[in-house]
């Protein structure tokens, strides 16, 4: 079996960011919205750098305006993930894009997303869980509304809370209220740090927000003491190498620090972030890591085991997914 065929666990996937461009174009056509400015002539998303990526992302969200849109989107995402061998996935959902932070609207969106996830599980055997994310550049007040939505719908399916968005805005600690609210509701915690922010942003995330996973976190490599701290604390990094290369953090996979972090004892997992934006898939991530570092099936099996241990699902789900990993 080649490494690309292995069953895979994905922990870091933005729901809207996983929307295929053709899917967004179709919705724009149905709703008579002109989104031509966000696509290249070849049909892919058109952006230059991270700030512009976030603008294009939010423009695409302009046509995702109803629970039914999200039901269709969820099916499209899970078909693609299952075709890539993903057996368990966690997706970042933002109440900001699902009803604007209003709890009643959020429940409607969530019901539609869960319906689609149930259908995909029956038909394709892929398991999905949701992590509610606030958007950093929308500010701490809006983050509180997201945290309240998360807390009110916490349970078997909404299992975590996190933060995405522009790391250049504010500090992690500004969002402590939202993270405390989510923690008190029993949610597990992750946040984007150490992607555009340096090692201090990772330290802040761990110490001030008390997260157990970090989205990216790769710039921790710039500080050996922090690398030790992450290894000692058993923090799992949700590493998205292809995303980091496209956004210009590293020149190529071979220069990416994922192997160095792993060799230093840091728990690493592998994800795609916003796959169509970054021209990647889970298969491609595995293929590129195999080529860059010579990682073999046993390396990916260990990475999937790490990812599954750090997944925010309940123990029964974890055991069921573990059996699927072991079968192949
Ligand atoms: N990084 C940070 N925030 C995001 C992203 C991302 O890749 N996608 C959507 N919000
Ligand atoms: Zn991300």
From TrEMBL:
InterPro entries in the record: A/AMP_deam_AS, A_deaminase_dom, Ado/ade_deaminase, Metal_Hydrolase
Q: Name one GO biological process term.
A: purine ribonucleoside monophosphate biosynthetic process
All residue ranges annotated as the Adenosine deaminase domain in the record: 7-327
Cite a single Pfam family from the UniProt record: A_deaminase
A GO molecular function assigned to this protein is: hydrolase activity, acting on carbon-nitrogen (but not peptide) bonds, in cyclic amidines
- CDD domains in the record: ADA (cd01320)
Task: Give the protein's cofactors.
Answer: Zn(2+)
Keyword Nucleotide-binding on entry: no
Which PROSITE patterns does this chain map to? A_DEAMINASE (PS00485)
Keyword field = Hydrolase, Metal-binding, Zinc
Q: Would I find Zinc among this entry's keywords?
A: yes
The UniProt family comment states: Belongs to the metallo-dependent hydrolases superfamily. Adenosine and AMP deaminases family.
Which NCBIfam families does the record match to this protein?
Answer: aden_deam, PRK09358.1-3
Give the protein name, as stated in the record.
Adenosine deaminase
Q: What are the top taxonomic ranks of the organism?
A: Bacteria, Pseudomonadati, Pseudomonadota, Alphaproteobacteria, Rhodobacterales
């Amino acid at each position: 079996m080649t490494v690309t065929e292995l069953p895979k666990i994905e922990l870091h996937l933005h729901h809207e960011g996983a929307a295929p461009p053709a899917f967004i174009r179709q919705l724009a056509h149905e709703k008579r919205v002109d989104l031509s400015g966000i696509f290249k002539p070849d049909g892919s998303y058109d952006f230059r750098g991270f700030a512009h990526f976030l603008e294009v992302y939010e423009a695409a969200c302009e046509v995702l305006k109803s629970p039914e849109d999200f039901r269709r989107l969820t099916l499209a995402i899970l078909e693609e993930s299952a075709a890539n061998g993903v057996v368990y996935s966690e997706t970042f959902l933002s109440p900001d894009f699902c009803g604007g932070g209003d709890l009643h609207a959020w429940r409607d969106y969530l019901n539609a997303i869960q319906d689609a996830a149930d259908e995909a599980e029956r038909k394709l055997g892929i398991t999905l869980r949701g992590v509610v994310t606030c958007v950093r550049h929308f500010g701490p007040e809006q983050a509180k509304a997201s945290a309240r939505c998360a807390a009110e719908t916490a349970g078997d399916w909404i299992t975590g809370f996190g933060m995405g968005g522009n790391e250049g805005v504010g500090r992690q600690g500004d969002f402590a209220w939202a993270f405390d609210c989510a923690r008190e509701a029993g949610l597990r915690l992750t946040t984007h740090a150490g992607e555009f922010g340096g090692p201090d942003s990772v330290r802040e995330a761990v110490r001030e927000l008390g997260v157990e996973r970090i989205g990216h976190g790769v710039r921790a490599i710039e500080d050996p003491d922090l690398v030790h701290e992450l290894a000692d604390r058993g923090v799992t990094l949700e590493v998205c190498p292809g995303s980091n290369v496209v956004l210009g953090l590293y020149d190529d996979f071979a220069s990416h620090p994922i192997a160095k972090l792993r060799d230093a004892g840091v728990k690493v997992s592998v994800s795609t972030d916003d796959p169509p934006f970054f021209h990647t898939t889970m298969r491609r991530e595995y293929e590129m890591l195999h080529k860059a570092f010579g990682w073999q099936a046993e390396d990916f099996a260990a990475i999937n085991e790490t990812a599954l241990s750090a997944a925010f699902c309940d123990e029964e789900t974890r055991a069921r997914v573990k059996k699927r990993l072991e079968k192949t």
